[in-house]
Amino acid sequence: MGDLIDLVLLAMLAITALQMIFLKDLFAVVMLFGIFSFLSALIFINLDAVDVAFTEASVGAGISTVLMLGTLAITGRKEKKSAHSSFLPLLVVCITGAALIYGTLDMPPFGHPNNPIHEHVAPRYIEESPKEVGLPNMVTSVLASYRGFDTLGETVVVFAALIGVLALLGVRRQEENDVPESGFKAHHVLHVVARFFIPLIILFALYVQFHGDFGPGGGFQAGVIAAAAFILYTLVFGLSRSFSVVGPKFLQVLASIGVLLYASVGLFSMYKGGQFLDYSKLATDPIVGQHYGIIVIELGVGITVFAVMLSIFYAFGSQAERSNIQ
Amino acid sequence: MLILDIISSILLIAGVFFGFSGALGLFKFPDFFTRMHAASVTDSIATILILFGLILQTSFDINTAKLLFILAFLMITSPTASHALAKSARHGGLLTLPEVQAKQQERTH
Amino acid sequence: MTEVYTAVTIAILVVMAMALARAISAPTVYDRILGVNMFGTKTVLFIAVGGYLMGRPDFLDIAIVYALINFIGMVAVLRFFEYTAPID
Fold this sequence. Notes:
By secondary structure, chain B is mainly alpha-helical. Helix content of chain B is 85%, strand content 0%.
């Protein structure tokens, strides 16, 4: 039964992907990207991977669609016809793909219980994690404690993306010959509904942030959801009002504070006599120390991701207000 | 708790039936605004029936609260999204089917 | 009860496939937006019922996120239309 659902979802995924390649209208492609992300999250749910589905839902279907629409508002909607034929690239890709598939034939069969990952890696974490970290959600304990250094690298990568976007685009200050504030002034229903729901969305983001120890969630997803709340505010009420609520300079400072928070936890545990990011030294009881460490670094990740997503949206949005691109 | 199971099953199957009819209307109706009306059938009545069928299956705990929250959120935002889409389509110049036919008639006269 | 959950899950999957077909073969661009919106709300129902089918009601958090994301995505799309020409 689960196999049938998997097959149907994968078939819909393949159809969507094929349709995306042949469409020339980029707006329709962005819509199909949204559907693609919904379907991927459903496949992850079918594989029982709840945290991954959560992240795919919030990042892929929400933020990516909004940012791609912001890009289309700057560049334009139609894809240009390519000048050269695509037979040679197709041949190269097919040969490389066939070589890769031939290479994977040597690996152990997929999902077989005798695989090394099921005999050595997974049992070690499943058995030791309740004794060493003590959190119900093992994904969070692996992500934040056992692989804490990788997560620090991810946070720094997100921060570097912000630096890249600010260096290339920058957030434009409002000038006189900008398009006057158009659009959603007449949508009174949308104003009322948005004003009612934005505090609830922020509350839900805080719930996801702090509930990540016990259920699906964590810092990354919470930051994205909180950014989505403020993006909704910007879309409905306009960019200038949003700048006066949460300014671009404040967001840049906030992004740096998140990364600094994460790294200082590591330095603090070195000061206490352990290694970098060794949370057991943060309190007298090692398990309590692990809990403290995980909460603080998840907070750092959430703050950075929120500030980065909102800043990138500000950068795209303020460029789009420069002129009415047809 | 067999009575609760039977009521849940009836609600779920009724919700699925309305979902089907709405999706069928998405293909059969001639005009965009009528198609949107068909799609909103699936958003409103099918959602209410299916979510109530699931609420009856929970004992009174946090899952009940989450399902009620999803229901309240979808009930408020689905009509808002349909309204915004219809207003945007009208603003973009899309005409309803009687208006299109009236325009064609006055062009041939 | 699991049989009912399975039947309902497959039925919602069929409705989603029909919404996808409408989003791909859309006469106007607004039909595409309508198809994606309907796909999103059906995904919320699929996650809720599928979670009960697999006996893991923690999935309701993901269903809440999807409801939020669907709404915010719709608002973003309609705002996009304020900047560009609507009908090609």
